[in-house]
From TrEMBL:
Name of the protein in its database record: Ornithine transcarbamylase, mitochondrial
Pathway assigned to this chain's UniProt record: Nitrogen metabolism; urea cycle; L-citrulline from L-ornithine and carbamoyl phosphate: step 1/1
Self-association state and partner proteins as the record states: Homotrimer.
Source species: Pteropus vampyrus (Large flying fox)
Catalytic reactions of this protein: carbamoyl phosphate + L-ornithine = L-citrulline + phosphate + H(+)
Amino acid sequence: MLFNLRILLNNAAFRNGHNFVVRNFRCGQSLQNKEQLKGRDLLTLKNFTGEEIKYMLWLSADLKFRIKQKGEYLPLLQGKTLGMIFEKRSTRTRLSTETGFALLGGHPCFLTTQDIHLGVNESLMDTARVLSSMTDAVLARVYKQSDLDILAKEASIPIINGLSDLYHPIQILADYLTLQVGLFPCTRVKSTNIMMSAAKFGMHIQAATPKGYEPDPNITKLAEQYAKENGTKLSLTNDPLEAARGGNVLITDTWISMGQEEEKKKRFQAFQGYQVTMKTAKLAASDWTFLHCLPRKPEEVDDEVFYSPQSLVFPEAENRKWTIMAVMVSLLTDYSPQLQKPKF
């Protein structure tokens, strides 16, 4: 089965902001019985195969069905402890992780910059070793991807990226889970790492950014390599309307990420014309849907689109919980999904 998806997006995978378009999502490939994920780090989806990503989505759907629909209690993480390091404030990442880990019987420990200063009063190496001795995994929402890389190198437990200046893999999983549910007879998801994973799903990407806000060259180069290997296309443009043309899915993101507040005036000027409106949607396919990782500002998308029946932003937000639960279960246990495999 072939779907024509196009996604407008602008966030951390790009150097300063971006708008994406994703097309041609092929469904029908079967999943392997059990992916070998236990004990691994989740720093970026580029480190995972398409089948491994599909497995995490299958597990997300399984947990959502068994816990939310059937009302089962699954203490899969009983006796486990999660360290949660947050250098940036958060609503969805904190709630989804804290409530999800607890719902599975585990104990999450929330640590802010007032509790722990990465690499300041203690080296990253020492921090990683201490956390490894007291917790079973760490989810870190940080400013620098390099901090996560050091933590992962020095820790003996799984390190999970809760957001960095380059990647946001747990958001992408939620986006794919959301799309899977609405467009296919299975489940859905989205985020920053989409350039690192779209080709593995048979997607073509068309990205629209203002001049000077193009994707990080290293990420673009790698995404082009993945596209070549998987027979897909990656196109970059400065025209948001062209990027939206014929798309089934429109995605945009915040123009100003945390830590970029001083650039507000400059960014507002650069992103003029990038607001998603019904004018944008008229160029998309008749069955278009809209995603946004939240929090949303009116200049990024107007109310008519944001609160329209085509908008999936709130199911997308909820799916952050089920996908992060699936990540924790897959990295920390040997549990296998009981739900029938979805068709991707």
